[in-house]
Design a protein that fits this description.
The chain contains ten helices and 14 strands. By secondary structure, it is of the alpha/beta class. It has two domains: about 200 residues, NAD(P)-binding Rossmann-like Domain (Rossmann fold), CATH 3.40.50; about 110 residues, UDP-galactose 4-epimerase, domain 1. Helix 6 crosses helix 10. The chain is globular, with a radius of gyration of 19 Å. The two termini are about 35 Å apart. The structure holds uridine-5'-diphosphate.
Length: about 325
C-alpha cells in the first residue's frame, strides 16, 4: 500500500504501540515513534523505527516530527490505561487522553496528515445491556477512562467532517499476550491487567492473584472479558490503515475482540494449565468501575477489513505472555 511518507506511532514504546510498530515495519511501512517514555521503554522500540522523545501535546515537537518525516498517518496509542486509577484521578485521564489527543489532532490537521487511527476501548460502552456488544449500541461509560476515550471519539467525528482527514477508532477489548517471536511484550511497571498479574505470579513476582468480585451476574460470578492477543490487535491496525488509505472519504469505528468471553477463574485456570502450577487465588470484593461482562460483536471488523485472528486461543495468549515475563526476569532493564 502506497503511503508516500511515514507512519507516526504515538506511544510506540509502550505495550500495544510497540507491537503495532513491529506489524507496520514487517508490512514495509516506515515508522517514527513519539513517546515521552513515562511508562514506555526506549528499548521496546524496534531499531528500524525512529524514536522522538516527546509528549503528544508538545505541538512544536509533534509538528516538527510530522514535517521532518513526511508523516502521512498517525496511529495514536499514547495515553493512560488503568481503569481504577481513572476513578481516583479523573483529571489525569482527561489530560493524558482527551486533552492530549485534542492537541495531537490539531497538529495533524494543521500539518495536513490525512489518516488517523485511534486506540479506543470497550470501556466506552460502560455496562452493556447485552453482550456481545455492537458498535451502534449505547456508549455510557461507567468510569473516567472510558469517558476520556469516548470524548476523543466525538472529537474525531467532528474533525473528520470539518477537515480532510479520515479516522478509524478501534475499540479494544482486553489485550494480552506478547509477540510470538519474543520481540516485545508487556513490560509495564506496576501493571494491573489480569493476565500480566497472573504471569507475574507464575514467575514468582507475586504470591497470589486477587480475584476482584465473585458476585457478578456471570456463570461463575467472576468478571467476564474478551481477551485478544496483542499481535492480532496490531495486525488489525495495519489492515485499518490500508482501508483508510483506500477510502479517504470514509471513517470507521470497530470493535476489536474475538467475540467470546472468559471469566477471571477461567483465565486463572488457563494459567495453571500452561504453567503446571496452582496459582493462589485471593477472592476479594469488586474493583471500582468494573462491569460484569464485556464481549465484542466483531461482525463489523470482519466485514470492513481482511483481518482474521491468528492467535484466538486463551492458552496461546497466556503462553506468549508467560514467555515474555520469563525473559523480562532475565533482563537487566527494566
Ligand atoms: N481482575 C482480577 N484481578 C486482578 C486484575 C483484574 O480479578 O488482579 C479482573 C477485573 O476485575 C476484570 C478482569 O479481571 O473482571 C479484567 O481486568 P483487567 O484489569 O485485566 O482489564 P479491564 O477489563 O479492567 O480493562
Amino acid at each position: 500500500m502506497e503511503l508516500n511518507g511515514k507512519v507516526m506511532v504515538t506511544g510506540g514504546a509502550g505495550y500495544i504501540g510497540s507491537h503495532a510498530v513491529l506489524a507496520l515495519l514487517d508490512a514495509g511501512y516506515e515508522v517514527v515513534v513519539i513517546d515521552n517514555l513515562v511508562t514506555g521503554f526506549a528499548w521496546a522500540v524496534d531499531s528500524r523505527a525512529t524514536l522522538v522523545e516527546a509528549n503528544v501535546a508538545d505541538d512544536d515537537a509533534v509538528r516538527g516530527a510530522i514535517r521532518d518525516h513526511d508523516v502521512r498517518a498517525i496511529l495514536h496509542f499514547a495515553g493512560s490505561v488503568v481503569v481504577p486509577e481513572s476513578v481516583s484521578d479523573p483529571l489525569k485521564y482527561y489530560r493524558n487522553n482527551t486533552a492530549a489527543t485534542r492537541a495531537l489532532l490539531e497538529s495533524a490537521v494543521s500539518e495536513g496528515v490525512p489518516h488517523f487511527i485511534f486506540s479506543s476501548t470497550a470501556a466506552t460502552y460502560g455496562t452493556p445491556a447485552k453482550v456481545p456488544v455492537q458498535e451502534g449500541d449505547p456508549t455510557v461509560p461507567i468510569n473516567p477512562y472510558g469517558m476520556s476515550k469516548l470524548m476523543t471519539e466525538a472529537m474525531l467525528r467532528d474533525v473528520a467532517v470539518a477537515h480532510p482527514i479520515n479516522y478509524c477508532a478501534l475499540r479494544y477489548f482486553n489485550v494480552a499476550g506478547a509477540d510470538p517471536q519474543g520481540r516485545s511484550g508487556q513490560s509495564t511497571i506496576g501493571a494491573t491487567h489480569l493476565i500480566k498479574i497472573a504471569v507475574e505470579a507464575a514467575t514468582g513476582k507475586r504470591d497470589a492473584v486477587s480475584v476482584f468480585g465473585t458476585d457478578f451476574d456471570t456463570a461463575d460470578g467472576t468478571g467476564v472479558r474478551d481477551y485478544i492477543h496483542v499481535s492480532d490487535l496490531a495486525a488489525a491496525h495495519v489492515a485499518a490503515l490500508e482501508r483508510l488509505i483506500e477510502n479517504p472519504d470514509e471513517s470507521l469505528t470497530l470493535n476489536c475482540g474475538y467475540g467470546r468471553g472468559f471469566s477471571v477463574n477461567e483465565v486463572l485456570d488457563a494459567v495453571d494449565r500452561v504453567t503446571n502450577l496452582t496459582i493462589q487465588r485471593r477472592y476479594e470484593g469488586r474493583r471500582a468501575g468494573d462491569p460484569a461482562a464485556l464481549i465484542a460483536d466483531n461482525a463489523a471488523i470482519f466485514a470492513a477489513l481482511p483481518w482474521r485472528p491468528q492467535y484466538d486461543d486463551l492458552d496461546t495468549i497466556v503462553r506468549d505472555a508467560l514467555s515474555w515475563e520469563r525473559g523480562l526476569a532475565e533482563r537487566a532493564q527494566p
